[in-house]
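Lecture 7 notes: from sequence to structure.
We start with the chain below.
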Amino acid sequence: MATPLLQRDIEVDDSADAVLEEFVKRQWCDGLPIVPPTEDRVKRMLDGRDPDRSLGAVAPLWRQATLEKLAVNAVMAGCDPSYFPAVVAAVEAMLDPEFNLYGVQATTHPVAPLVIVHGPYASEIGVHGGSGCYGPGFRANATIGRAIRLIMLNVGGAWPGRHDMATQGSPAKYAYCIRENVEASPWEPVRGQNGVTVYGGEPPHNVNDHVSTTAAGILANVADTAVSLGSNVGWYFSQSQLLVVLGPEHARTIAADGLTRADVQRFVFEHARLPLGKLKLGGMWGMHDWPAWMKVVRDDEAMLPQVPSADDVFVLVAGGPGKHSSVVPNCCFSRAVFREISI
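Predicted structure tokens for the same chain:
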């Protein structure tokens, strides 16, 4: 079987079990069964694209992200060829300096790239934004997200404990991909054109609110969930961002009170705050290398925001029936990046 990642042939028995055993031994997969990346499968995934075209170097080992390598990993992940444009766009987004892939790959934080697929294309290929969208059961979500992780492992070289230094990691590191539930949203889509947003986030933090009947009540719970001493958000203030994923029921209640998406952003920005005195009790306060500008505020009663502005709070609607939403803090040194999808 040809293996483009090493540019040589390796002989194995003609069986899926033998291929899996070899890939596991060589640390070329995530521990789950793979689809053997045969030459024919890789060609079908490429669909006429130039296999030698490189999107750039992938941190931390700076190997070239050629389309052939991306196709190999997409096959292994179980992607249908129709998903490949999303994989390519997501890798392009991750290689943007704003995303800071080196930091995402090498940190002790459990950050994982959340791939949000936008536009009609997302629905056409079956990316799920309804009930259980973060979880199992949906091939496009699972395999696009998994392909991104395999690329980070095999091309970037970030193996757990070796270059990927996440202390505990996260299940989101297996696969993290959703779309906006535009059909159930009371607002216009975040983005109407075909594309992907890649957001370096923690796993979702659940917001459980079965009681509130007003926008203020729901959003107060959202804002409270968004702040904690253990969160990275706020410490590298200039790059901190926050993603609020409202369940459709919560979104409808909020919209019924006349609030727009921009209103939600402003509310969360103004209310997702902790006093400086409390922030000093834990988290990352007091690390010796903080620059002077991060210590300018000295009033312990000052309520410090989590992000630089309301525009750094992203709001979308996803999920199904039920009075739950989620907050996804970022890792504070990575910025969300959008890339259009070329089909």
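Points to note: The chain has a mean pLDDT of 93. The chain has one domain: 2-6+13-286+297-340.
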